[in-house]
């Protein structure tokens, strides 16, 4: 990824520590969450400027995450979709992760391993 610490690592690290919900007082950004969020879940997205072909290859190499969309399932899922270009030639993509019931350490390792392969 083009960011130093991908958002998924931050989210899944908090989940692994039992602090997965910004709505819980134990979360380090609880106060911020109370001001800015109306709720929380295990579904989140991030924007990437990596080539969409590379992102899709990354997603295809994942073992724990399956490609697809769902609401309320137990398995971890991922989708990669193109967005409209903003200015210039930069074409963003949105990566959507639905985190299931698997061990967060395993999910982080899976995401990192697959990224290292592309």
From TrEMBL:
It comes from Paenibacillus dokdonensis. PANTHER family: CYSTATHIONINE BETA-LYASE-RELATED. Its cofactor is pyridoxal 5'-phosphate. Keywords: Lyase, Pyridoxal phosphate, Transferase. It comes from the Bacteria. Pfam families: Cys_Met_Meta_PP. This is PLP-dependent transferase. One of its GO terms (molecular function) is transferase activity. InterPro entries: Cys/Met-Metab_PyrdxlP-dep_enz (IPR000277), Cys_b_lyase_bac (IPR006233), PyrdxlP-dep_Trfase (IPR015424), PyrdxlP-dep_Trfase_small (IPR015422). The keyword Oxidoreductase does not apply. Belongs to the trans-sulfuration enzymes family.
